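Lab intake sheet, docking and co-folding queue.

SAMPLE TYPE: protein with bound small molecule
LIGAND NAME: fe (ii) ion
LIGAND FORMAT: SMILES
REQUESTED OUTPUT: full 3D complex as structure tokens
PRIORITY: normal
SUBMITTED BY: R.K., bench team

The fields below were copied directly from the construct record.
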Amino acid sequence: MSLVFAGVCSHAPGITGRAKLADPKLRDDLYASYDRMRERIEATKPDALIVVAAEHFANFFMNNMPAYCMGMAEQYEGPIEDEDWLAIKRRTVPGNPGLSQRLIRSVMEDTDLAYAEEWKFDHGIMVPLNFLTPRYDLPVIPVNINCQGPPLTPLHRAWRFGRALRRACDEQPERIALIGTGGVSHWPATPDSGVINEAWDHEFLDRFINNRKDALLSYTDEETFRDAGQGGFEIRTFITVAGATEGSIGELLIYAPIPIFAVGCTVAIMNIGERPATEALLETA
Amino acid sequence: MSLYYVQKLLYQLNRDSHTQQRYREDFEGLLAEYELDDEERDALRDGDIGLLYVMGVNGQILMHYSALIGQEWHEYIEAMKDGVKQHGPVRGGLYTLLEERDQ
Ligand SMILES: [Fe+2]
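RESULT FIELD (auto-filled):
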């Protein structure tokens, strides 16, 4: 069929692992927003869910770091983290290797994409799945963009990757949902954990929701690191979703800075819009 | 300094149950497989989060390792702060840029 859903959400491990330490009202509002996203995904009756993530050294290390990688496995497992620490039980998650292979072939027409038949999920995928597919019955296709170990892919490539992903989805008979998970500003896992640059987040999310391509792609990594921390590098996942929904605008379901979760917690849905003439767009890119 | 191998050992340890078993049963043998200096081996033997942070281990690796050794979140954050107090500013990796920012 085509892409039937697109959105973005946060994936910080504290969202599940440190739930008891958060302001209950803020936490419950956040959880309700994930629920709304889940309902919207379910309403589109997807056959598979692509999760564009920014993993944290669960599979990829500096010995052989792909800028982009898609999973092509029958099943995946996660989380790698201590189950009690993340408050998510370890389990297997179904994949769809046939669909993965077709998507990979299509994306490769435009963007060089690595693939992996083994993949362990960390909090970057498990936290979103915990809320969005709580029965783990929807086949998942993981994608990783290296956002942790520089050199990192340029933002304009993340955009273009999103566009290639959209075209690839639109070529398939399946109904496909797509989410990106990552930042906005945060200083995860460092002594600065809990610092949140709300002004920067609001500006970025405004650019994202209104799909202002040039503004989204104008950040340099130096600026992002200074203003939004290492975690800010994960905006690549949002930018990929913006590329996949080029010309459409979105709806911010929540933005809630929750310091114990170490990030301005974000859930947003992009309108899919008309199927874009991606072939022509790719030629002019 | 072999920050790369310190991080590689922790990466393997964080994700791989076989490496976790070796960590419990033959830690010295595991250490010997990586090119590490004495200070790095001691930091790993001691689970010294503060020193590992100061050496420049990426927080995304260090956080998972902290969970593996059973630290509470606040203990983890405090250990990094104490590390900087005790050993001085971060020496390598991404966070040296944070030190520049703070100066
Ligand atoms: Fe992350």
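REVIEWER NOTE: The pocket of fe (ii) ion is lined by residues A 11, 54, 56, 124, 182, 234 (CB under 6 Å).
SIGN-OFF: pending second check by T.M.
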